[in-house]
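Hi D.,

Good news: the full-assembly prediction came through. Inputs first.
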Amino acid sequence: MNRRVILALSAALLMGATAVQAQDAAKIAMVAELSGAGAPAGTNWRDGIKIAIEEINAAGGILGKQVEVSEYDTQTDPQVSRAMVQKAIDEGAFAILGTIYSGSTLVNMLVAQQNEIPQFVGSEAPTIVQKGNPFVFRTSSGSQKGVPALVPYFTDTLKAKKVAVAWVNNEFGKGGRDVFTAEMEKAGIEIVTDVPSEQGATDYASDVSKLKESGAEAVFVYMNQEEAARFLIEAKKQGLSMPLVGEVTLTEAKVIELAGGAAEGAIAHVGVTATATDIPGIAEFNEKFVAQFKRNPTHDAIKGYIGAWATKYVTEKVGEFDGAKFAETMKNLCLPVAEYPKMLLDTCWDETGEMSRPSFMVQVKDGKPVVIGTVPAN
Amino acid sequence: MSQFLQVLLSGLATGSIYALVAIGFTLVWQAAQTVNFAQGEFVMVPAFFVLVGTNILGFPLALSLGLALLLAIALLGAVFKKLVVDPILPSGGISLIIATMALGILLRESVKEFYGAEAQPFPAMFPTNPINVFGAVVSMQDMLNLLISLAVVVVLTLFLNRTRTGRSMQAAAQNPAVAEILGVNVKRMVMYAFLINAALAALASFLITPVYLAKFSNGETLGLVAFIAAIVGGFNQIRGALVGGLLIGVLDNLVATYVTAEYRAALPLILLIFIILVRPQGIMGTSEGRAV
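Then the structure:
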């Protein structure tokens, strides 16, 4: 009898303790591309968030509550991502971090919007913030802001008159390609060849061959990580000699790791880079990431980190876990790094959720991305 | 003209690797009258054996390649035949086909679980420097891939046609009962076919992964394209698989360069439908009889 009573009391205490713990935790959902073509981006995004959440919890959590992060894998499939966002909300998440692939975000952000849940995304397609969704916020500039920052490099540094575009035919690639084409037209530079390729493509022989014959003086490469690496490998195989200039992904650590020597000399404009180690916050993040995960972080890792910290800062500005008030506070909000050091750089959002902050020009030298210039916030 | 030559050579190099995988389909079909739908995964897995050797065990590349080849022959050849083919084949070819599909999923998910979902860099066996071939700039790697694949096919053909063991394999494929009566060890000959298939898959893996990068999902497309190559060329002829592989490799590159790159994934399927309508036995295949 005594044994039964003790057992029942223990079970009740355990359940009670679990319930109290669950009630006390602030739940954030990390919905990202942990497998499939987007895995390099998604896993970095996840690991950046992990570091941020450890720091946030060590600093007392959000509004005094410890933060609990649940991981949801979209498998780089837009429909799965939608289901995962719904699942995350059903399980009590007060904020969503992800997704990264624009094609997925465009589908799943409607679910977060309907439930009035704030969502920080790593996506860069212009359309994300053009749908009038007040609950979606970027963690880096969209391509309509990032790509124009490249124009001076083509006009002033390369003095190019004819350029070619090689892009991945998905929402991300199409967005970047459209902005680049429009910007080149404005700058009076002719696009002589336009080469789309499919997501997950493995053979770039014909694409590179077309670029070689195009007469272009430089190539704008706008692809996801694995595709960019395969493209660079093929470009080296065929001796493509013109400058390869990209936005964000082309000089990423993962691309350099995959492409090896073929990435040498590639140039890109990046919203944020772990190699900008003269910025104290980025140097500290870089150090922590390498120590914990034994690899270099990509810009997606920093984006995830910033997304998690922005969630804390803004929620504490609001003073309660309220999605509608969070969205209202985010409008035209600036988080200067002097006051909010974990944002790493002075960061602002406009009324659409678009972000602006200073950015960098990076070139691969001796197998490492090196900052070759800074671009002011536009 | 130089662009045409460059695209042609690149297509031949890729096509020759498809051919190696397609020949594997042919060999297994002839030996066991079944289709191995895990063939694409048989190409994906050896690359990860190499990565385990170089990255985890710290072996030099050459040793890792050698060990990976032996491991592939043992696991994807002998163990596959003993544990999957032998017990299921008596239930019929369809059961075995379904079993190979399941095996493909198992291999894919196991690699994903063990090594991760991200693509991994894979060391090139040959220099990647570009060379000039009659005005076309192609890579040394592509040229050596093409030469090695073609040399392997020639050696395999000579082995099957000119050696006693090869002719015994032919006899076992054509009429196992009569071959048995004539003293051929049919079981052993069938085992040889599976071992050769595993070796070809491993070789294809070592040649193509430096370009495709090592990834758990690599087998999906590769297996499908090689399967189509085997049908297009003629499922019951090695030379058919060679022709099918080269044809798809070259046509894919030419269409992507001169017509459209957007529908290149559909090209093998269009070719497959065309061949089935016009010449169901394949370009080099025969409508009856089996020969390896």
